[in-house]
């Protein structure tokens, strides 16, 4: 079994790539289900981008989940809000003269800042959304010490999205079956074009390793996260509260411009 800690300084952000049927979607479900089971909603907030409307719909009412975006314009709104959170956390760290969110949470245990995990499936669909790509790149550069982490996934690796700056910061990479060597090299997992079985991947973590990923079917994932779901009534109340908060933030932003 392979375990790694995203909070560790060398492994904060993750890239997962693989063609249809390769096991990519199952791996994404495994990671999210694991996080939901082992971290409380007070200590972990999930922000999900599902641009193909196929991966994260079953997570919408999970207590940890703050946003599920299905459209590009929703992604712009979500990422803009997250960038404001980055700026707020940077200001807090400067005021307290601290280098990491964990240090802040140790001295303010009554009001800790939660970890934020941003998962975007089919991130290549954002290539024409320059504002989104820019924010993702900036978060990849500064997010670790602020407790903000990325998991980006795509079927076909896109060199336009994975340019030098972003790719450099996605230090952990899972390359499931890819179409050819070019795609494997874009991910940074040469050899993934030769994988023969679903669920096999080339893992870039302290070197390159061939690994068999665990399988988690959608029905099984739904069963696992069921205890962490809000009722429909609670979900409506939560959405209304978040909508009201967004309106307040918008007024404040306009006032500060």
UniProtKB/TrEMBL annotation:
Protein location: Membrane
SUPFAM superfamilies associated with the record:
P-loop containing nucleoside triphosphate hydrolases (SSF52540)
Domain of life, per UniProt, equals Bacteria
Coarsely, its chief localization is membrane
Q: What InterPro entries does the entry give?
A: FtsK/SpoIIIE/SftA (IPR050206), FtsK_dom (IPR002543), P-loop_NTPase (IPR027417), Sigma_54_int_dom_ATP-bd_1 (IPR025662)
Q: Residue spans with biased composition (Basic and acidic residues)?
A: 235-248
Q: Where does ATP bind?
A: 18-25
Region Disordered, residue ranges: 235-257
A GO CC annotation given for this chain = membrane
Please name the PANTHER family in this protein's record: DNA TRANSLOCASE FTSK, SPORULATION PROTEIN RELATED
The molecule here is called DNA segregation ATPase
Q: Which organism is it from?
A: Bacillus thuringiensis YBT-1518
């Amino acid at each position: 079994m392979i375990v790694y800690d995203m909070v560790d300084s060398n492994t904060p952000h993750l890239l997962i790539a693989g063609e249809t049927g390769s096991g990519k979607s199952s791996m994404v479900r495994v990671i999210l289900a694991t996080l939901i089971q082992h971290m409380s909603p007070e200590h972990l907030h999930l922000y999900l981008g599902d641009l193909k409307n196929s991966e994260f719909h079953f997570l919408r009412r999970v207590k940890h989940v703050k946003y599920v975006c299905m459209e590009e314009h929703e992604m712009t709104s979500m990422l803009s809000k997250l960038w404001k959170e980055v700026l707020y956390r940077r200001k807090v760290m400067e005021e307290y003269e601290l280098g990491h969110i964990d240090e802040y949470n140790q001295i303010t245990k009554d009001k800790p800042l939660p970890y934020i995990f941003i998962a975007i499936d089919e991130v290549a669909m954002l290539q024409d959304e320059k504002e989104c790509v820019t924010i993702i790149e900036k978060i990849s550069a500064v997010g670790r010490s602020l407790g903000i982490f990325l998991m980006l996934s795509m079927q076909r690796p896109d060199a336009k999205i994975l340019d030098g700056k972003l790719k450099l910061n996605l230090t952990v990479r899972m390359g499931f079956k890819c179409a050819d060597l070019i795609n494997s090299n874009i991910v940074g997992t040469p050899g993934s074009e030769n994988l023969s079985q679903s669920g096999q991947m080339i893992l870039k973590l302290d070197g390159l390793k061939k690994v068999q990923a665990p399988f988690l079917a959608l029905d099984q994932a739904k069963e696992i996260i069921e205890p962490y779901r809000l009722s429909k009534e609670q979900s409506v109340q939560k959405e209304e509260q978040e909508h009201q908060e967004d309106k307040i933030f918008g007024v404040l932003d306009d006032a500060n411009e």
